[in-house]
Specification:
Conserved hypothetical protein from pyrococcus furiosus pfu- 392566-001, ParB domain; globular; alpha/beta; 16 strands; TIM Barrel; 406 residues; five-stranded mixed β-sheet; single chain; 14 helices
Length: 406
């Protein structure tokens, strides 16, 4: 059976494994968690041994502890690892980018970061300023290559032009069976420009639940190929040669399961079968029917006033949305009432949309099958756009959608 080939950027003389290791949740989510340090380090090392040598982390993961654990895991094999890290949106100004990089280097116990990325764009800071800091880091040798995480298609084009002649040939975006937003513009662009996409959250943060009727297709194919459903999903994502998936393994058992995907490919008809079963389902829902609960802002007035000082603010992001930038839909679950929903992901993005277009406008959303996370088939992954570093970007189809007001 045909294996999945490594990914290459020929002009940069870079080769990547098709499967790397994501670390959101390793060492904590947004607070430090030391309870499983030995297990997490062992899992990362096992992944490296199996060829999963691209490791993605960020300064915000575990309040920096994820980087510390990665540093411990790679210290004896540093030259074998392609190390990726990211700085937060509120660190987008020149001195902040430089300081964030220095802090990450210290936690990672290394003298260089192979790929350094803004975690999210910050529309309140001209990207020219962020690019200046990245150029300094490249020139100093502390950063080898620059990437762009969670940038819209439009912003990727703009940022790439500003960074020139620094090559920005790797972008990072969410990509899974439910959220296929990148297929609209970004993926074709990356295929045409020989750009790599680091695909995070391949299992939708662990929310692929058995009650999803479409999962029967995955179950059937798992039996056919004598593989797990997780392996079938990864193989489907890797049908595109510009994709590198970065699932979170966290244990040796997980990374062994993921690494085995390199040894097989899905038949063309089975790729089509999955693609048809999981065709995108974007709903347009009145924002007034979506309940926002817990943490950060729960009212229009709070979002407008921004008392917690989020940078970028919901108002900054609202201005970005009105310029045509919206990265992807929010995520909601159906409430008990048929016309009521609960927001599960994308809170700052939701309020930015409401500030831009009003409480009764229609907002694009993925409606999740069930709010019950028990019974999910995967360990929960990163919810990376649930933080204060949220940015909201472009999807061309949305810019033509009529906004309806009450």
């Amino acid at each position: 059976m045909t294996s999945i080939r490594p990914r290459r950027l020929d002009d940069l003389d870079l080769t990547f494994p098709p499967i790397g290791q994501g670390t959101m949740g390793i060492g904590g989510y947004y607070e430090k968690d030391c309870t499983r340090d030995a297990e997490w380090i062992a899992g990362l090392r096992r992944g490296i041994d199996l060829g999963l040598t691209l490791i993605d982390t960020a300064e915000v993961y575990g309040a920096g502890h994820s980087e510390e654990l990665v540093g411990l895991a790679i210290r004896e094999v540093r030259d074998e690892v392609f190390l990726v890290s990211k700085f937060s949106a509120h660190h987008s100004r020149v001195p902040q980018v430089i300081a964030a990089a220095e802090d990450s280097l210290r936690r990672l116990r290394t003298d260089r970061i192979d790929l350094y990325q803004p975690h999210w764009p910050n529309p309140s800071v001209p990207f020219d300023e962020t690019a200046e800091a990245l150029d300094r880091l490249v020139q100093s040798g502390k950063v080898r290559f620059v990437g762009l995480s969670n940038f819209s298609f439009q912003e990727v084009q703009q940022a790439t032009a500003i960074l020139n002649p620094i090559p920005a040939r790797i972008v990072q975006q969410e990509y899974n069976l439910i959220d296929r937003t990148i297929e609209e513009q970004l993926l074709p662009h990356c295929e045409a420009t020989q750009t790599i996409i680091l695909a995070y959250s391949p299992f939708l943060q662990g929310k692929m639940v058995p009650r999803d009727s479409r999962k029967m297709v995955l179950d059937d194919l798992a039996k056919k190929y004598e593989r797990t459903v997780a392996q079938i999903i990864l193989a489907w994502l890797l049908r595109k040669e510009r994709i590198v998936v970065i699932p979170k393994g966290s244990t040796g058992t997980h990374v062994e399961e993921f690494a085995a995907v390199k040894d097989f490919c899905l038949d063309t008809e089975d790729i089509h079968r999955i693609s048809e079963a999981y065709s995108p389902r974007i709903s347009w829902i009145p924002a007034s029917q979506i309940a926002v609960q817990g943490g950060a802002y729960t009212t229009y007035e709070e979002a407008l006033a921004n008392p917690l000082g989020f940078d970028p603010s919901p108002q900054d992001l609202a201005q970005s949305i009105m310029m045509g930038n919206m990265l992807k839909p929010t995520k909601v679950t159906q409430a008990l009432s048929e016309d009521a929903y609960i927001l599960t992901e994308g809170k700052i993005r939701f309020w930015a949309w409401v500030l831009a277009y009003g409480r009764h406008s229609l907002i694009p959303a993925f409606v999740e099958e069930s709010p019950d996370r028990e019974g999910g088939i995967f360990e929960s992954e990163a919810q990376t756009d649930g933080t204060i570093h949220q940015a909201v970007m472009n999807h061309s189809a949305w810019t033509h959608k009529k906004v309806v007001y009450a």
